[in-house]
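Continuing the series of single-chain predictions for the mutant panel. This is the parent chain; the variants come on the following pages.
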Amino acid sequence: MIDKKAFWVFVFQIFKILNGLVAILLLPLFLTSRNQGIWFLMLSFGSIILLFSASQNNIALIFGAHEFKKLATNNLKIVGRQIDIDNLSGFIKFSSIFFLKLLTWLSLLVLISFIFYINEANSLNLILIFLIYVVGLYLYSLNFYILSYIESFNKVEYAYKFKSILIATIIVSTIYFLYSDYKLYALSLSVCITMLFWFIYFLYKFKNHIKNIVNKKNQFNKYKKIIFLNYFKKNSFSMISGFLLFQIYTPIVYSFYGARYSGKVGLSIAIMTALFAISTSALHAKLPLVAKLISEKRYQEAYHIYFNASRSSLLIFILLLLFGSYLLFNVNFFNIYQNRVVDISSFFILSAAWFFQIIIYSLVMFTRMFKRELFVIPTIVSSIYILIFTIVILKYFTVKFIFLGLLSSYLFGLPWIYIIYKDFLKGKI
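Parent structure:
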């Protein structure tokens, strides 16, 4: 019998991959090279909000599950001792106000930054498009925030079912708006309209829960509040580092070479991101089992299962990369895509960087199964190094070496990360 929780988690991962593939396959067909560059520039700025959203959802899930551990649900109604319900309500109210304030200020900051950064003939129209997009991302964050709380109440199937539906509606609406020749508005309208619909739906469905939480006068435990804020700070560093690692390229290239070449960089990174997501699905499929074995202190068994899954992910990435590269650069049918990505030498450097990214990702994810975050400092150092190295390359050397900073950071950082990894596992494996 199929595990419904695992099934919907898998479906959600598939839709996330498809969402990335829509941009890869359709943008060269429906947008000019300039508009492709603007599209990825907007995605890069918007990713700041999405990274913050992912961070806050992770915190809501972890802390919500902790506060919920003595409670249960009956048709999404929380049942248990009143004191435990009050503690949970106090946390939800505190964290929701905290995140809502930060999300509002961050969204405004991203919008203002884009306004000052964009330098195009039709800037006012682009600002309007991006404004609609930011509103959509704001609603997207709120929707996923609500679902993360539901997931923390051990309603994994329900949460991931709706997460999948949300992503699916974005995909369908994006395809529709691109096909209907809405051009760049396809990005903003697809997110804004669908997320507004689902936000209204969730407000209506959970209106009684929301009213109860708003009316509660419980205070979140002061000691837990300190733990919460410290954890948030650590996640914020990871969020900033994540942006600098993968999303900074399009804005930097745009400032040096304009929209057309930044579009090539954006599409090239999108291809690697899709290959990475498909490849690591073999790894993600084993994570629940690995986590269970680790919780039972069966470390050796967990390690072997995880190692084999990591090796499979690496092999899948290599095969997909070779096959995809052959199609992209050797088959005439894909000429339109070849003209929209970076040249073959830059593509090779980027591919090598993502190869090492999978190795590092495997090491990091295994330690996270022990509920440890050991690589914050290496990630921050790597991010700063990549930022500085990339600016120097673009200013003083050829753009063909744009991804050399990313590749060299992985080559230099891998031994450091491996030492931390081996030291942590000493005595366990």
